Amino acid sequence: MKNRTEELVGKLKLSEVPEKPWMHLMVDFIIKLLVVAGKDAILVVCNRLSKMMYFVATTEGILVEGLARLFRDNIWRLYGLPESVVSDRGPQFAAELTKKVE
Q: Is 81 in contact with 101 (CB distance < 8 Å)?
């Protein structure tokens, strides 16, 4: 029998299922694309409940202010402000995005 060097982890928690669409979102970028009409990246916004997605053409060097504008014009205008935003760029990025949109 081997000795355990790591601590045992507690029970897994199930993810909460969103009750309303477009209240909990995932945001990501597809980058390093060929330049077409001055755009070289795609902003992907996914609704966690239905997995419906929006794809918005943008540039790779977009700042948070520009992203907030894209988000406002393409998502918030249709569905309102979400309760949560998850991004692979970290919680600071998602927090800054929601601050700028408000």
A: yes
Domain count, the chain: 1
Distance CA 88, CA 68 (A): 16
Q: What pLDDT score does 1 carry?
A: 58
Q: In CATH, what number is assigned to the domain containing residue 53?
A: 3.30.420.10
pTM of the model: 0.74
Nearest to residue 96, comparing CAs of 64, 69, 62, 58? Answer: 64
Q: Using an 8 Å Cβ cutoff, are 97 and 71 in contact?
A: yes
